[in-house]
Amino acid sequence: MGFLGFGSSSSTSSDLASRSASPEGAVTTSEPRSNPLNPNNVKPCCACPETKEQRDKCFFNNSPEEAGDKCRALVEAHRACMASYGFKV
Fold first, then answer.
1. Do 81 and 42 form a contact (C-beta atoms < 8 A)?
2. Among residues 33, 39, 49, 59, which one has the fewest Cβ atoms lying within 10 Å of its Cβ?
3. How many beta carbons lie within 10 A of that of residue 55, not counting itself?
4. Which residues pair with 35 in a beta bridge?
5. Domain ranges across the chain
6. Residue ranges under compositional bias (Polar residues) (predicted)?
7. Mean pLDDT calculated for residue range 64-81
8. Is the pLDDT of residue 21 over 80?
9. Phi, psi of 31 (to 5 degrees)
10. 46 among annotated binding-site residues
11. Is the entire prediction scored with pTM above 0.70?
12. Considering the chain, what percentage of its residues have pLDDT values greater than 90?
C-alpha cells in the first residue's frame, strides 16, 4: 500500500469500481417518524426557550454552591416543558 493508503501499485480500475457505493447499502426512509407531541419537529436546542433562558440565568447569577437549591424549580420547569415535546431528559 502506498503512502497513507493512497497510490497502491496493486490497485486496478476494477478494484476501485468494486469499492464504489452501491444503492443496496444506502439507508433510506420513506417518511420521517412524526411525534404527536412535536408535530413541527422542533429540535431540542430550540424547544422551550423561555424556561431555558430562565434556568440559564439562574445558574449564571448564582454560585455553584447556591445554584443547586435556587435553580431547582427552574430546572424542573424546563424538564417538564421538554417532556411536553416528547424529549426524554
1. no
2. 33
3. 21
4. 38
5. 48-89
6. 27-41
7. 96
8. no
9. -155, 145
10. yes
11. no
12. 55
- Is 48 among the annotated ligand-binding positions? no
Name 65's bridge partners: none
- Of 88, 84, 89, whose CA–CA distance to 38 is shortest? 84
Question: Which residues lie below 8 Å from residue 75, measured CB to CB, with a gap of 6+?
Answer: 55
Which residue, among 82, 45, 63, has the nearest Cα to 71 in the 3D structure? 63
Question: Do residues 75 and 32 touch, judged by C-beta distance below 8 A?
Answer: no
Under 8 Å between Cβ of 77 and 84: no
Read off φ and ψ for residue 38, nearest 5 degrees. Answer: -140, 65
Helix (H, G, I), strand (E, B) or coil at 60: helix
What does the alpha-carbon distance between residue 9 and residue 1 come to, in Å, rounded to a whole number?
7
Q: 34 is written with which cell numbers?
A: 412524526
